[in-house]
Design goal:
It is a single chain. By secondary structure, the protein is an alpha+beta fold. It folds into 2 domains: 49 residues; 116 residues, OmpA-like domain (60s Ribosomal Protein L30, Chain: A), CATH 3.30.1330. It is 50% helix and 13% strand. The chain is built from 5 helices and 4 strands, in the order αβααβαβαβ. It has a 4-stranded mixed beta sheet with strand order 1-4-2-3. α3 crosses α4. The longest helix is centred in the first third of the chain and has 46 residues. The protein is elongated and about 115 Å long. The N and C termini lie far apart (98 Å). The mean pLDDT is 87.
Length: 183
């Protein structure tokens, strides 16, 4: 029994010595180093400058103005950039309103669905050309109706910015559109 007691006593002294060693030589320096790092971090954060403002000459942020969306199926003859009678009537009414607005920019953007062009492929090899021709037709029509051509711009997005799925006829119909944005 005496041997066990001495063994336990020796084990307690040994473990206490190891604990004191770990505390004195490992824990205390680690805590001190951590405090030094925190102080250095605070000092560096105090030196940090706010991000500099980058200025680019002749650049401006412009917000989109109001836009009007028309289905191209109602404005154009199928597969062409020729305005339908309904399209001419609709755009004539729009031209009267646009002339009153005093806009600095009127952007006519035309979109198509993703279906390939199957008629007039010699004239419109792709949806890009068809949408571009349609946007150009509308710009020309509006200018003829008195909208200042200096504020008109034609843009063709073709099939690249769908608002609905091209997998259904309804979705394709929504994607075939003409947007007129004003600024």
């Amino acid at each position: 029994m005496r041997v066990v007691t001495w063994f336990l006593f020796f084990l307690c002294v040994l473990l206490s010595g190891i604990g004191i060693y770990l505390y004195a030589f490992l824990y205390t320096p680690a805590v001190a180093a951590l405090r030094d790092l925190e102080a250095e971090n605070e000092r560096l954060l105090g030196m940090k400058k706010p991000p500099e403002e980058v200025r680019i000459e002749n650049a401006a942020v412009r917000e989109e103005g109001p836009k009007v969306v028309y289905p191209t199926d109602r404005l154009f003859m199928p597969g062409t950039a020729d305005l339908s009678p309904e399209g001419k009537s609709t755009l004539s009414e729009l031209a009267e309103e646009l002339k009153k607005g005093g806009y600095s920019e009127i952007i006519v953007a035309c979109y198509t669905d993703a279906s390939p062009v199957i008629t007039n492929t010699d004239k419109y090899p792709s949806n890009w050309e068809l949408a571009g021709a349609r946007a150009g037709t509308v710009v020309r029509f509006l200018a003829e109706k008195g909208v200042p051509d200096s504020v008109l711009a034609a843009v063709s997005y073709g099939p690249t910015r769908p608002v609905a799925s091209n997998a259904t006829p309804e979705g394709r119909s929504q994607n075939r559109r003409l947007e007129i944005r004003t600024r």
